[in-house]
Automatic annotation (TrEMBL):
Swiss-Prot/TrEMBL keywords: Amino-acid biosynthesis, Asparagine biosynthesis, ATP-binding, Glutamine amidotransferase, Ligase, Nucleotide-binding
Enzyme nomenclature, EC number: 6.3.5.4
Residues under site feature: Important for beta-aspartyl-AMP intermediate formation: E343
Protein's UniProt name: Asparagine synthetase [glutamine-hydrolyzing]
GO CC terms: cytosol
Catalytic activity: L-aspartate + L-glutamine + ATP + H2O = L-asparagine + L-glutamate + AMP + diphosphate + H(+)
Pathway stated in the Swiss-Prot or TrEMBL entry: Amino-acid biosynthesis; L-asparagine biosynthesis
Amino acid sequence: MCGILAVLGVGDVSLAKRSRIIELSRRLRHRGPDWSGIHSYEDCFLAHQRLAIVDPTSGDQPLYNEDKTVVVTVNGEIYNHEELKAKLPSHKFQTGSDCEVIAHLYEEYGEEFVDMLDGMFSFVLLDTRDKSFIAARDAIGICPLYMGWGLDGSVWFSSEMKALSDDCERFISFPPGHLYSSKTGSLRRWYNPPWFSESIPSAPYDPLLIRESFEKAVIKRLMTDVPFGVLLSGGLDSSLVASVVSRHLAETKVARQWGNKLHTFCIGLKGSPDLKAAKEVADYLGTVHHELHFTVQEGIDALEEVIYHVETYDVTTIRASTPMFLMSRKIKSLGVKMVLSGEGSDEIFGGYLYFHKAPNKKEFHEETCRKIKALHLYDCLRANKSTSAWGLEARVPFLDKNFINVAMDMDPECKMIRRDLGRIEKWVLRNAFDDEEKPYLPKHILYRQKEQFSDGVGYSWIDGLKDHANEHVSDSMMMNASFVYPENTPTTKEAYYYRTVFEKFYPKNAARLTVPGGPSVACSTAKAVEWDAAWSKLLDPSGRAALGVHDAAYEDTPEKAPALSVDPVTEDVFRPAHVESLVPAAAV
């Protein structure tokens, strides 16, 4: 995962301006510690901080076409670059970088080539022949990108807000699936899948198609020339990623370079649910497993650094980013530069526990569409920036374009949680990998109840964060919150505390507006809060806020988890009988 900074039409070609661009680019060096590059043409500058994953020896950026009239700086991976190169027989490639194909595609197809790219990316391309430029971001927004405007008429693009916030009068989060063209001076959406309209699909459930398309998504992301691993929480999504990788690793190029033993990584407070489940999965798959621990105090001590890197004050994101940030540092210290992770599945399949309350398939499907469209503001932002803070790249196979199309083309009735039919959340995915002859995972792991990452690392983590915020934010501060922070006013002391830290690093109003707001329960959108009247009284992003659903749901006091009862026949775990909407935590 690299860092890009482009400043175009700055109206200043002085050495001082070039030095300023280089200085700002260094703010992104954590993303790309392996090499730095800059190209200038008149008053346009393209800078790059490289994390070398593919072709480490010759793929330094910026990259060019044959006569260097087209210049591009790219953050990301183009998984189908070999296939695209085959369509360009008249072009001469100068490096083995997967990203160089972008310059040549532009030469061949103009601005209309972006949909041909299969991967995660953000890039800025300068055509020096007419001094025009384009910028684009991948379909879902896996790779971050910001766009800003200077008072001198310049247009800025950066992988992170910190490199442009001081010099731009206004800036925004560049929308995913969009392209900006200087020729029109406007943004347009290049990614137009059928599900984007939110109309209800009707294709029948095909478990083999789900399985095959996901396996292809995982395998293509093993394109690397450096050591890699899998982030394994022990939940369904990361466990499936690890299982598929372990099945296919031996046949890949990376196995010939670095060996066919898969490394997996998990972090949590000692005794946390994720650590136990992850070890069980790792033992089952035979991986080299690295169990990492942190304490609540270590997490609290890292909060300011986390907020600086992740560039948000969203409560859910900060809760989950902190352990991921700490884990990434330890992973990088082991010499690993790339990891696969399980983000995106819950949005696609309705895996969050609040989906139990979806009233019908229409609202279920529309909520999944809203969640996918917002991923760049939440889980994609967390996964990318928490890892890249330490020069580690995260790849997310569930957000493969083709896999999303397959999963979102399915009749949403199949995804609905139906206790009467024994279907828990993400049943369609679980069932697709429920292979009796050659099991992907142990049955009880395959049907483990959803744990959000910030919960699974240990329930006392969130409780500790709340206690810390209570010590630093007074009741009078909360009483005046709407005057101090009129945009996205914090409604809890925890949210207020994060906001004060964020404002210290990013004080401009434009920065505040890059962060989403609105009520949420168990990671829902504001619209889905309407599904259950009781939820409006407990607006907390933790999965435990899904009253009557989570096995350890909040009751009168968040610290006290309800007792569990076990069905002696099925060994399914249930919440106490007095709680509404009994939901099994495991199903066979």
